[in-house]
Model the fold of this input.
Amino acid sequence: MFKLKKVSYHNLTVQIFIGLIAGAAIGLFFNILNLDEVVFFQSVFIDGIFHAGGQIFLRALQLLVVPIVLVSLVCGTAGLGDLKKLGRIGGKTVGLYLLTTAAAITMALSVAWLVSPGKGFELESEAEFEAVEAPPIVETFINIIPRNPIEAMAEGEMLQIILFAILLGLAMTVAGKPGERLLSLFQDVNDVVMKLVNMVIRISPLGVFCLIAKVFSDQGFDAIMPLAKYFFTILLVLILHLTVTFPLLLKFLAKLNPITFIKKFNEVMFFAFSTASSNATIPITLEAVQNKLGVNKSVGSFTVPLGATINMDGTAIMQGVATVFVAQAYGIDLAFSQYMTVILTATLASIGTAGVPGVGLIMLAMVFQQVGLPLEGIGIILAVDRLLDMVRTAVNVAGDGTVSCIVAKSEGQLDEKIFYRDESELKL
Ligand code: ASP
Done:
């Protein structure tokens, strides 16, 4: 019989971390020595092993996203069995997501305003750029309802899948015996898919290594220099949000130890960092939120996929700093009301856009459009966006984890024994 050797959670986290550091070291080595210009290194390593290894790992993660969201949310909703409770959890989750995103962008605007990262650039806008329209908010709401659930799954439309799963779960609870039978089938599928997640987590140190090695060999640190002030302002606000806002929320809204949270969640952040995609990280976030932080499936299966889609604090931070930066670089004075528009647009734009690499820039175009900043400003910050994308995605998923814990705690759905359990003895 095929058996998986047990490995401790702790060892695995260490291995993933080693993969990340080694990947960065090798990648930078390639970049600094310009090995990417040597055909052998380029084709065998950068576009060969690193690229293939990274993509295989990423796809293995992505293939789990739709099945796991559907199955675990159906089980979670059916397990809850109460429409009122579901509405309450939904309200709290969406409320907290919007609140943290608005707080993040407000902080970003304030810090950027103090630091003035764009002063001294003196750029002039001349090019005409094609406008990117923000989808009307009514459309976003209508689009949540899928015409065809199979199509929604094939397209990976997260909000539509979430809605379908909730409806199916609710119907199961009122369908009597057939509902019970179907639920037990879904529960079995859920257990099996979770095993698949574990299998992918096993290969993750190698996957992380390849992804990071590829990014760093393609992109060294030299791109950062001209934009150092912009880059480090964002980094500073991201770190502040991660180490101040989230811990305060955990401490005061949920009375949970933020250090324990960070320790148990850092592996998920490594994943988010290396994939730059909160969507692809969903299976890992879900696993950690339930099995390491003790959030009940009925809450986690809802908050995590929803968060990956609508909650992007890190991305909002980039948008805040980028707005101030570009306005200053082009010598444009934004009025207070325009800053308010930035906060509103950035918060709302995050609802309709999926958590995939680089989507933050598309949202940024919507923000610029709203306040009339030159879209070509985006071209300037492009050079450092890939690295920032990695860091902000880690912050995005940390926000999802934080809100999941707070909502679960407030609903009596957080097992503190699991939250505070020592992981060194725990096996995957
Ligand atoms: N990559 C981010 C995410 O998946 C979105 C972005 O900021 O571009 O959460």
